[in-house]
Structures are given as structure tokens and as C-alpha cells.
Amino acid sequence: DAEQLLVAVMHYAGSCQLASPSKTLCVRFLSKIIELQWSRSPAGGALDLAKLQLSDMVADWALGLPKLMWQLRDRNLAASTAAAETLRLIGQRTRLLDAAASDTLQASLVTLFCVSVPGKGTVFGPFRQYPPALQRTVLEAVSYCPRRSEKLSLAIRACLSEATSVSSIGALVEEIL
Predict the structure, then answer these.
(1) Given a cut of 50, is residue 146 above it in pLDDT?
(2) How far apart are CA 152 and CA 10, in angstroms?
(3) What global pTM score does this model have?
(4) Using the 8-state DSSP alphabet, how is residue 75 labeled?
(5) CA-to-CA distance for 25 and 66, rounded, in angstroms?
(6) Could you give the CA distance from residue 43 to residue 10 in angstroms, rounded to a whole number?
(7) Of all residues in the chain, what percent carry a pLDDT higher than 90?
(8) Which one, of 83, 86, 69, lies nearest residue 33 by Cα?
(9) Hey, how many other C-beta atoms are within 10 angstroms of the C-beta on 77?
């Protein structure tokens, strides 16, 4: 049934090799399920995942997307793009995450930009390695976070203060920060 299929796809997505095309397909499939289930404008025939008791499991999977993107870096841009597009979709058009989950998501997004490591200073995440289109998608996902954290804003600023491709996304950065 639908519940078993969804659980199987989430488990398979977690076990796929990072660089495999299967990783991308799983992220895109789960993204489509999220769009159908949690769309702000109800779609006919959508799965009733609340009834299936999978909402928390799907939300946890979605909260893991920034970590997946960090692990992928630029090794599987198709999967990174699918993950970023899913994050944008969640913020823009769904009701999947509550306020607390949105705060957790923002904390996870910080590592895509940069973090301070004792003894090493600032360590930049994969955002700077992404092509401009993927950078834009990540920033669009951030722009849909309801209450942007100061930590995330500072990480974006620090990352972009030394980035070379800022000109193509500069207006968007100014808009969201």
C-alpha cells in the first residue's frame, strides 16, 4: 500500500550512494509526494499522510536535506538541486513544517554557508562551490523561512563576503537579508 511504498522510498533514499542517479530520483519522488500532500491549495486525490501517520517521518526526512546537500557538496549537483528545490517547495507552497521545525531547518542550513570551528576559524560550506542557478535556489529556499535566524543571516553574509559569483545573486541576497 501507499504507506509501505513511501517508507520504502525514504529508506532507499537514505541508503543510496551519494553520487548515484537513484539519490536524485528518490529526492524528486519524495518532493512530489510532499507537494501533493501538503500543498496550501488542496489537490484532488492526494495521499492522506496524516491518516497514514507518516507526517513526522516525512518532515524528519525533509529536515535532513541540508545535511544531504552538505555531504554531496558538488559531487552530485542533480541531487543537490533536487534537495534545494524540495526545500524551496516546502517553504513556498506547503504546510509540512511547523515553526519549531522551521527553526531546526534554518539551523541546518547554516552549515551550507559557513561555520566557525575553534582553532580553524571560518570553514565555508558547499554553497560557494555551487553553480549560480543552484545558489539562487538555495537562497530562494532561505527566503521562504518565516522567521530568519540571525545565525543564518550572518552565515550567508560571511560566505558571500568572499564569494566571486555574488553579482548574479546579489539582489536576491539583499532582498532576503
Answers:
(1) yes
(2) 28
(3) 0.85
(4) S
(5) 17
(6) 22
(7) 54
(8) 86
(9) 16
Q: Using DSSP, state whether 117 is helix, strand or coil.
A: strand
Residue length of the chain: 177
Distance CA 142, CA 159 (A): 14
First to last CA, the chain: 44
Calculate the CA 69 to chain-centre distance: 7
- At position 124, the amino acid (one-letter code) is F
Name the one residue in this structure whose C-alpha cell is 513544517: 97
Pure H helices in 39-149: 49-52, 55-63, 65-72, 77-93, 99-113, 132-143
Neighbours of 58 (CB within 10 A): 20
The C-alpha atoms of residue 88 and residue 90 are separated, in whole angstroms, by 5
Q: Which of 40-54, 63-77, 95-109 has the lowest mean pLDDT?
A: 40-54
